[in-house]
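3.2 Worked example (two chains)
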Amino acid sequence: MVSEFPIAFMTQLKDIISQLPWTKMRKRIVTCSILLATIFFWRLVEATIHNPIVSFDVVGLEQPVDILIDPWGVPQVFAANIEDAFFAQGFMTARDRLWQIDWARRRQLGRLAKVLGPDFVPSDQAARLFLDRCDPTPLPNTMQPRVRDAARS
């Protein structure tokens, strides 16, 4: 059962921030930063309070993989081979940090204004101006075989 603490805390925080004499962009940045810090703190607390054993059936593994979550919420991956270890690490990263991966993708592609409002249009224009438009297809051919296998996992 998830506590209502983060929701109540963020509601009170929103009321406090709305009374400060800041620009809309600064309010959004501060609110997002505090929200992310609250989520991080709450996930850390939940990981230390209860750590249930969960089993996932994931397609793509050659052998079973054990993932233990330590008291700080950091996953420890134990696998029989390197490909399964990288696959499990990617799975745990996506499970725990999908929001961060999505945020970085939106920032890099210049699509923050779509979710945060028109104040981020200048930031998006700058990101699109410097967008890397190279073709990544030949990149795996330049990698060492072990690095390429890890990246494909």
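3.2.1 Second chain
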Amino acid sequence: MIPQANASAFAPAQIKPHAPAPSFHPDTISTLNQLRLIAMRCRCAARTDLFHACALLSLDRNTAQGAHAEILMRCLEQALGKRPLFHRPGSQEISFDEAWLARMIQAIRTGDEDSFRFLLCARVPRLNRRNLAFLLRGVTDAFSQV
């Protein structure tokens, strides 16, 4: 005798609603939207080596506000080991990569070094951490002055 299959085993999977978007300070959302815009412009630009780009930026203390952000967007794929997902500026939806960046920016702005280090170490290989931290601090400082 063949056992009867349980009907509930073949029921369609329950679709879980998306988790609510994390809430961030309005300044952080503003910075995120500026980074989204820069990411759109950098899509077809050549990728830049993270170490080389940071070395050039550290030599010129008077770099433009957007220089750190543009280098960050062009090197983020190298630092993470995968291409990050960015939505259009103004979008209410926030990707995992955007939320990660926003949390790091908030940690820098609030002086929460422990959270910043945790977030950085959770996704970025040791080789790239110092340079990415340099770029993120530069972006945060530049956009805080606006």
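3.3 Remarks
Residues 28 and 102 are 6 Å apart (CA to CA).
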